[in-house]
Design a protein that fits this description.
The protein is 34% helix and 19% strand. The strands form four sheets. It has a seven-stranded mixed β-sheet with strand order 4-12-11-10-7-5-6, sandwiched between helices. Strands 1-2-3-15 form a four-stranded mixed β-sheet. The longest helix is centred in the first third of the chain and has 20 residues. The protein binds pyridoxal-5'-phosphate.
């Protein structure tokens, strides 16, 4: 019953009981095409057999051991995660359970790095306007959107937000006497899929390297294969055309295909900063999440699977950009935002209410990313026929609302 919940979510009127691939079924047996995959979480779709197998097999062995000990499956998961990010210089990982926790840990790591090397007073973390980094008091402070700040102060101090793309503001904000880190989503998710420009990312990475300010990328929404590379930052190059090597990377959402998991990864500079007692998590590295995460990592290792993500994204982008009510389409791979002439929430509602078995009509699950912005974040396993169906429904719904 929904009224047992605190009133924290504006929910659409639908309750799901089952999923299969890119479809979900509600309590009345109505069928919905899933263009949101749980906000980029169910990246391999619903009821994906290898994922179900891995989770059930692990559940039959053991659910949990504390971090007093090691778990075979979480050791493997950590190794594979570091291996996947090793081309970018990543050396170590801390396993957590959510995005906010991953960012919280990243901020702690950045502050301690700076403190050990430069002493107190160099603790600021610069982030971008429009960013979203989580719901804890510290990650809200990092989040560069005022609407999240009302009612909950005072916040953790030391966060400042600058305009996306403003290299002069960045240069000023990255004060080497007071600043420990720069935290950036390469593609902003919650604010409507806003990719940072290559020029801005290159300038940011260069300024950070020069001033020994840690370059932290929040890939919680755009990482884990969603853009067609393991991390979105891999698609950016510095001004000499070399890969950009972040000092810290944060992940969550799709990391374990729907089982709660988060992580922060550390490069050369940051991998030896934290010591026993500095950080911890009861559930972090949970064996069931690790077993699921191993399936996700293995699946997205396949270069053909990754190039399919890009190809599918292009089909969606091309399908959307000519619609007369679509003003702009942004994104890469299966992280796509579109500005529309209608209210996004009306589209979400109409996508739900059109589900009707008697008319053989499926609903559509799609996400908002602002008042007039939609987000399309399907499972990587979505079929082309399902993409066509989703685009068809979306086009109808846009015309109707
Ligand atoms: C969702 C998200 C978070 C927060 O993750 P939670 O698991 O909800 O704590 C942080 N950063 C980005 C970019 C996100 O998309």
């Amino acid at each position: 019953m929904n009224n047992a919940f605190m009133n924290t979510y504006k929910r659409l009127p639908v309750t799901f009981v089952r999923g299969e691939g890119s479809f979900l079924f509600d309590i009345n047996g109505k069928k919905y095409l899933d263009f949101g995959s749980g906000i980029a979480v169910n990246c391999l779709g619903h009821n994906y057999p290898p994922l179900v197998r891995a989770v059930t097999e692990q559940a039959a062995k053991y659910f949990h051991v504390s971090n007093y000990y090691s778990s075979d499956v979480s050791i493997s998961f950590a190794e594979k995660l570091v291996e996947a990010a090793s081309p970018l210089g990543i050396k170590k990982v801390f396993l957590a359970n959510s995005g906010a926790e991953a960012n919280e840990g990243a901020c702690k790591l950045a502050r301690k790095y700076s403190l050990l090397k430069y002493g107190p007073g160099r603790h600021k973390i610069v982030t971008l306007k429009g960013s979203f980094h989580g719901r804890t008091i510290t990650t809200l402070a990092a989040t560069g959107q005022d609407k999240f700040h009302k009612d909950f102060g005072p916040f953790t101090e030391g966060f400042l937000h600058i305009e996306c793309g403003d290299i002069d503001a960045l240069d000023k904000a990255l004060d080497e006497k007071t600043t420990a880190g720069l935290l950036i989503e390469p593609i902003q998710g919650e604010s409507g899929i806003i990719p940072q420009s290559e020029e801005f990312i290159a300038a940011a990475a260069e300024l950070c390297a020069k001033r020994d300010i840690l370059f932290i990328v929040d890939e919680i929404q755009c990482g884990v294969g969603r853009t067609g590379t393991f991390l979105a930052i891999e698609q950016y190059k510095d001004k000499n055309g070399n890969p950009i090597k972040p000092d810290i990377v944060t992940l969550a959402k799709g990391l374990a295909g729907g089982v709660p998991a988060g992580a922060f990864l550390a490069g050369e500079k940051t991998s030896e900063v934290l010591s026993p007692g500095d950080h911890g998590s009861t559930f972090g590295g949970n064996p069931i999440a690790a077993a699921a995460g191993l399936v996700v990592l293995k699946t997205i290792q396949d270069t053909e699977f990754l190039s399919d993500i890009v190809r599918k994204g292009e089909i969606i982008i091309n399908g959307l950009k000519n619609h007369h009510l679509v003003k702009e389409v942004r994104g890469k791979g299966l992280i796509i935002g579109l500005d529309i002439e209608k209210e996004a929430w009306d589209v979400l509602e109409a996508g739900i209410s059109r589900a009707d078995n008697s008319k053989n009509q499926n609903g559509l699950l799609i996400l908002s990313g602002g008042v007039n912005t939609l987000r399309v974040l399907p499972a990587y396993t979505i079929l082309e026929s399902e993409i066509d169906q989703g685009l068809e429904i979306l086009s109808q719904v846009l015309d109707e609302v």
